[in-house]
Inverse folding.
């Protein structure tokens, strides 16, 4: 059995329109939500062997909050993969299949629409949108990542900041 966790980056800022999409930082809400959801993830027993993240600034900042929440005893790795940025779900799926079988729990930090599409590829329940800092977990009935398929995935959780902060503001 393996576990796949999909995390959408925290809310980003559009304040500086001169910045490229790749370079957008987190906004006030993103700076609140990323550490909050990271702490919840850690408290619920989240312990990925590998965090794979897009190198876009907002995604790096989100991944780093999760890495920090795992604490100083976390023995996993955090890697940035350029293929994740603006990836279609097929690209994400193929990237996951290439991971080492030593990795039991993988946390993939990425972007929409690819992340929501990948979520719906695996889930029997339709999820209209994985919101910013939304996190989705799947239990996978596989021993090798290359055998990953929708039929072998079971949704185990879907959590996001609006569950705790219903009146979201920027």
């Amino acid at each position: 059995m393996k576990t796949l966790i999909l995390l959408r980056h925290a809310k980003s800022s559009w304040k500086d329109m001169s910045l490229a999409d790749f370079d957008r930082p987190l906004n006030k809400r993103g700076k609140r939500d990323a550490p909050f959801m990271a702490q919840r993830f850690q408290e619920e027993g989240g312990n990925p062997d590998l965090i794979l993240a897009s190198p876009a600034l907002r995604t790096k900042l989100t991944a780093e909050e999760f890495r920090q929440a795992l604490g100083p005893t976390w023995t996993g790795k955090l890697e940035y993969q350029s293929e994740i940025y603006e990836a279609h779900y097929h690209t994400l799926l193929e990237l996951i299949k290439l991971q080492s079988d030593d990795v039991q729990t993988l946390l993939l930090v990425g972007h929409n629409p690819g992340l929501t599409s990948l979520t719906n590829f695996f889930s029997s329940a339709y999820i209209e949108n994985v919101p910013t800092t939304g996190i989705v977990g799947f239990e996978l009935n596989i021993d090798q990542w290359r055998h990953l398929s929708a039929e072998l995935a079971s949704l185990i959780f879907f959590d996001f900041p609006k569950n705790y902060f219903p009146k979201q503001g920027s």
